[in-house]
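Our working data are protein records whose layout never changes between entries. The record below serves as our worked example for the rest of this section:
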Amino acid sequence: MEVLLHQIDAFTDAPFSGNPAAVMPLPSWLPDALLQQLAEENNLAETAFYTPELPADVGPPPGDWPAFHLRWFTPRVEVEMCGHATLASAAQILTDIQPGADRVSFYTHSGWLHVDRTDDDEYVLDLPVVPSIETDPDPVLVAALGVRPVRAYTGADAVIVVATEQEVRTLRPALDRFPPLPRGAVVTARGDEVDFVSRFFGPGVGVPEDPVTGSAHAQLVPLWSRELGRNLLTARQLSRRGGSLRTELIGDRVLLIGRCRRYLDGVVTLPDEW
């Protein structure tokens, strides 16, 4: 059996930047163990798998545009939400499979997610807000990050707010000293040229540092929107590759707006035993 593999950089319009995702369309679901092995072999922050088969209990698609069942795997685990691999999957579908459509919906572990393509070839990802609760900074995490926290929040990710963009840019965390976390840790600050900047670390789920983390922005945007008093914000993730997003908070939804750039198309030949 052969499976297509597309590697697409999300939240960038320049080569060798943004967050690379592997996108693997499937006619139907393969065993979970094989999906995990494929994600480990791809060795990217996330591999996205999708099929046209929707689960029987979810009801009809939300509209007359294309709809798929989407799942995401890091090299180590399946995750509940992934923004950049959803954007990359939408870019592949709306380019290769449904070039006449401008919207695609995905049924996921986080419910229905939608991506729209604009006339300017940007992609608009609609995610649910990820809530946060202000908390005392975890001293073990703070020591591992080597930062001076201004505030801290708990939620899907641990969020540490620091005073300056420079502190985010130059931090060198000791990943082997991280405490156990549900997913990862985000360090963020007000930006010098954009509204806010961040970096994301998830060694516990097999992602030492993620280049551009869409799902983390579903938690960050409400925090910075409240801090800055605006719903329209610009963001930059300060990983080595880097990536840029425009964001909007609308009620309990976060819109993440960015571009995608395709890197490669290939074919994976599965082992005979599968």
